[in-house]
Amino acid sequence: DTGVSQDPRHKITKRGQNVTFRCDPISEHNRLYWYRQTLGQGPEFLTYFQNEAQLEKSRLLSDRFSAERPKGSFSTLEIQRTEQGDSAMYLCASSSLLGGYTFGSGTRLTVV
Amino acid sequence: AQSVTQPDIHITVSEGASLELRCNYSYGATPYLFWYVQSPGQGLQLLLKYFSGDTLVQGIKGFEAEFKRSQSSFNLRKPSVHWSDAAEYFCAVGGGAAGNKLTFGGGTRVLVKP
Fold first, then answer.
1. Which of A72-81, A96-105, B4-13, B40-49 bottoms out in mean pLDDT, i.e. has the lowest?
2. In order along chain A (112 residues), what is the average pLDDT of each group of 10 residues?
3. B98 vs A105: CB contact, 8 Å cut-off?
4. Contact A110, A85 (CB under 8 A)
C-alpha cells in the first residue's frame, strides 16, 4: 500500500493556461474524490467517482473544470483557462466500500 | 445541508498541557464524524473517526474525541501536548463509513509553546 499519490506537487501557471493534475489512488479503493483547499480554509468537495463513473459534482466545479477516471484507476483533473481564483491546494482521496478514506499530499496550484 | 463549525481559529497551548478542540456539526441523519490533522504543505492525516457505538473514540498520537448527540458536538482532546502536535486540525462530517463526500470545518491552528 503506497498511499494516494498526486502529481505534480506544485504547479505555477500563467492566467489563461490549461493545467492537468493526476491522482493515483490506493489500488484496491474503488472510490476517488477531489477536493479544493484555499489558504486558511478547510477542504471543499469537488467531485467523486465510483470506479469510472462520476457520481457527484459540486457546483464549485465550473465548466472550466473537468475530471476523468477512464479505467477506474487513476484520475485527472483539468482546469481550462485558469484564473487567479483557481489558486489553491487540490487534494485527492480514495476509499473502499469498507471505509478507509485516505488523502494524498495534494497539488498546490499558483496562477500568476 | 450538512455543515461543520470549528469555533476556534487559533489555539496556543504550552507543551505538556492538555488540549481540547471544539467541533459542532449539523447533519440530517446519523453522522459519520472525523478528525484530521494537516501539517504545512501536506495532505490530511486521519486521527480518528466515529461511526457508531462507544461515544468516546480513541485515535492515533494519543488523541481522543467524544461524540455528544444532544450537543451536536465531536470535540477532540489530548491530555498532554507535544511540540510535534503543532498543526492545523479539521473536523469533518460525512454520510457513510466508506465516504460519501465529507464536509469540513474551517480548521483550528494549534501552536505549541515550549
1. A96-105
2. 89 98 93 93 93 89 93 94 96 81 93 98
3. no
4. no
Query: What radius of gyration, in Å, describes the C-alpha atoms of chain A?
Result: 13
- Dist CA A51 CA B107 (whole Å): 30
Cell, residue A36: 479544493
Give the number of other Cβ atoms within 10 Å of residue A111's Cβ.
19
A96 vs A26: CA distance, rounded Å: 9
Q: Phi/psi of residue B84, each to 5°?
A: -70, -5
Q: From the CA of B44, how many Å to the nearest CA of chain A?
A: 6
Name residue A45's beta-bridge partners.
A35
**Residue of A58, A91, A108 with shortest CB distance to B44:** A91
Q: How far apart are the first and last CA of chain A?
A: 36
| C-alpha dist (Å) from residue B90 to A18, A22, A51, B73, B102 | 31, 24, 27, 14, 11
Give the bridge partners for B3, in sequence order: B26
Judge: A31–B107 Cβ closer than 8 Å, yes or no.
no
Residues of A in contact with B90 (CB under 8 A): 42-43
Contacts of B105 in chain A (CB under 8 A): 42
